[in-house]
Amino acid sequence: MNESFKLQLKAMRAVIIIGALIMLIKFFAFFITHSNAILTDALESIINVFAGCFAYYSLSLSSKPKDLNHPYGHGKIEFISAGFEGGLILMAGLMIVVKSIFNLMHPIEVTQLGIGVILSGAAGLINFILGKYLLKVGHQHKSITLVADGKHLISDTYSSIGLVIGLVIISFTNILWLDSVLAIIFGFVIITTGYKLFRKSLAGLMDEADTTILSDVLKVLNENRNELWIDIHNLRIQQYGSSFHIDCHLTLPWYNDLQTSHDELKRVENLIIKNFDDKVELFIHPDPCLPFSCNICQLQQCKVRQHSFDKKVEWTLENVMKNEKHQI
Question: Averaged over 77-86, what is the pLDDT?
Fold first, then answer.
């Protein structure tokens, strides 16, 4: 297991342990206050712990090397983990809304709100610090699992801030139905968070193109472009956990021998490895140029050119993702 996965697993262990402590704090706050709004916070903490355990397992599995049964590695499990967490969040949000609507019609007296405010505020602050830490580690190591957990904890913090403000208002006004209204609002916030996580995991499982990483790859290729590389097209990407698999077609002069073409393909691969370490795996198919390619070909020493060079075509997401050679 490499250092990247060790750091990710260390972060997830922190989420599970601290998440369990926060859950106990929130349920203690609920038992002494009987506040529905605090209960919404406590129920979401249960999700944090369960999702953290599943995420830890998924990270452990995705850290395993490629094998005969999984030639692209085990990274897809991270999308399943994010989807699992999103599904749990959706169910919790729906349960919170239903219970709060019932209590809106049958209000329950709320007690000791001062202690509830302090405990909820402290739990929210801890969640914020932990969420920021997860986002930092997740973005650094391209882990969708850590990023999903980090965003979840940050949204949990915002809910806690609103919760604390609402509890303070209730303590001064003694309007009990505000507690259930707050819980309904936070319930819908939680449902939105769950939907976004579920949507993100579905996009990964369906191999939706990641335009951010593709743009970064194109930037490197454009900045180091060789005159033999006439165009790049049919560029596609798949994400496996924190790693990306990219394949594309590279148009080269048709008269190149096999060794020369191989050397150019290897040059592109080494360029990507140099700039993205082992996070991006590139497979390139060589294509021979055609007569219409002459207009965009910058190779000055070409002896079989049929048309003069007109202009350089910048490689953009729009033209490299199409399955056709570039032409003007």
Answer: 74
Average pLDDT over residues 137-160: 76
Q: Above 80 in pLDDT, residue 289?
A: yes
Q: Which of 218, 112, 223 is nearest to 170 (CA)?
A: 112
The per-residue pLDDT for range 263-284, each reduced to its tens digit, is 999 999 888 888 876 667 788 9
Distance of CA 27 to the CA centre of its chain: 30
Amino acid at 206: M
Distance between CA 217 and CA 275 in Å, rounded?
Answer: 9
Rounded CA-CA distance 271/293 in Å is 24
Q: Please state the pTM of the whole predicted model.
A: 0.57
Q: Which domains does the chain have, with CATH numbers?
A: 3-205 (1.20.1510.10), 211-320 (3.30.70.1350)
CB 164 within 8 A of CB 124: yes
- What angle do the packed helices 77-105 and 36-62 form, to 10 degrees? 170
